[in-house]
Amino acid sequence: FPRYQIGESLIPAFMRPMEELGLTERMDARGFERKYGGTLVWGNEQIPWVFSFIEGGHSHAFHTRRADLDTLILDRARELGAHIVEDATVKEPIEEDGRVVGVRFQVRGTDTQNTVRAKLVVDASGQARLISRRYSEVTWHPELRNVAVWSYFDNCERLPDEEYTNILIEGLNEGWYWDIP
Q1: Do residues 75 and 60 share a domain?
Q2: CA distances from 79 to 23, 70, 72, 74, 83 (A)
Q3: Which end of the chain has a smaller Cβ tally under 10 Å, C or N?
Q4: pTM recorded for the entire structure
Q5: Is residue 165 packed enough to be buried (19+ CB in 10 Å), middle (13-18) or exposed (0-12)?
Q6: Cβ atoms within 10 Å, residue 30
Q7: Separation CA 151–CA 56 (nearest Å)
């Protein structure tokens, strides 16, 4: 940790917890690019539709490199007193009275399982869904079994003027794409 992930284009609602954690200035200092809205090209007419984040109450969000964002949040958690365990694998949830109250984990390279308890346990295992798989069956919607392809491009032309940092989402006959500057 941090691990490589494709970049992250944050939504404005993400800014409130970042402000509460005192991280917005650090995000600027790291050079995360501010974005102020988005541009959609969708439907039969293919006429661009532009939206501004300020209409929803926050003026901006950020485009980030995911590993940099993860490091920023993890470092702040340490500063605020969180006990961080890295290079570990969660083995199973600990359940009491029908709710998850902790997890058993193993640090890589050891044979010992450790236990940690918390008032709130969040399954942040992503698509692995470690805890949720144990308590519910994963049911895929047949029309949502899609494939995503991503890449980075250099020297691409951006949208003009006020749309310069906008995400661009465009619908095509066989799918859609999302362009993050």
Answers
A1: yes
A2: 12, 14, 11, 9, 10
A3: N
A4: 0.82
A5: buried
A6: 15
A7: 30
Q: What is the span of the domain harbouring residue 8?
A: 1-84+142-181
Residue 139 identity (one-letter amino acid): T
For the chain, the residue count is 181
**For residue 178, what are its two tokens?**
């999302």
CATH number at residue 156: 3.30.9.100
